[in-house]
Amino acid sequence: MTLSRSIPNALTIAGSDPSGGAGIQADLKTFSALGAYGTSVITALTAQNTRGVTGVHPVPADFIASQLETLLADIEIDAVKIGMVTSREVAETLADILGRRRPRWIVLDPVMVAKSGDILVDDAGIRAVREVLVPLADLITPNLPEAAVLLECPEPRDREGMEALASPLRALGAGAVLLKGGHLAGDACPDLLVTARAMHWLEGPRIATDNLHGTGCTLSSAITARLALGDDLVTAVTAAKAWLATALAESRRLDVGQGHGPVHHFHAWW
């Protein structure tokens, strides 16, 4: 893939995290760390820190549309990452605009389940993600609880269970699926990339750290950045996973908050 610019433009559509470890802030840090110019459309303001979320203030769908239309009227976007969307109106707004002004790549991180196991969106929001946004995406990146919510099935407990979900997840309409295996027991952290052609197991060690805030956001935005830079899908996912592993390992150098801290997005620079 040949880009018309030396530095590509990536877009994140997500909520804001004041602690800087997840959401818009994590995505923009990731884009910058990996060499893509970051732009953003904010879908919600949150009150949160490393210990939890205390409030969410959704941005109205019409203003999200205004942000996105204004941005796309001026800036050529090479790849888009979509984070948590709780409203069907917002999902349909994004699908309409991105359908008309479609970038080369759309990555969907279907954020629906908190690390505590709590469901973050209601049934209408889940249906909106499943029916409106998943078919729009070139890649979706659910973890195991999110995959179970999308398919309304039990959560996989082993690799065989993950493989059994491969075809049903792709049947929802996405071009490819990265099923993240971080919730499996054991010292390994395997992910399963499922494309139209093959299944790819991506191996990796489990990093011993409590700095896990925003890992899903960071991985999906790292993939988005690599796609914007011109990688093919398998290369982008493999490189992003390796980069995140180092960001997790180097997170010990940070002293941010008293709960689950962030990964070190700029480990290669600081």
Assigned CATH architecture:
3-Layer(aba) Sandwich
Q: Taking all residues together, what is the mean pLDDT?
A: 92
Percent of residues in helices = 25-40%
β content, as a range? 15-25%
Count, helices = 8
| Morphology | globular
The poorly predicted ranges are none
Q: Count the beta strands.
A: 9
Report on the architecture of this protein:
The chain is α/β, with parallel strands linked by helices. The chain has a single domain, classed as Ribokinase (UDP-N-acetylmuramoyl-L-alanine:D-glutamate ligase, 3-Layer(aba) Sandwich), CATH 3.40.1190. The protein has a six-stranded mixed beta sheet. Strands 7-8-9 form a three-stranded antiparallel beta sheet, with helices on both faces. The chain is globular, with a radius of gyration of 17 Å. The chain starts with 8 loop residues before the first strand and ends in a 21-residue tail after the last helix.
Can you tag this structure with a few keywords?
37% helix; UDP-N-acetylmuramoyl-L-alanine:D-glutamate ligase; alpha/beta; 8 helices; six-stranded mixed β-sheet; 270 residues; three-stranded antiparallel β-sheet
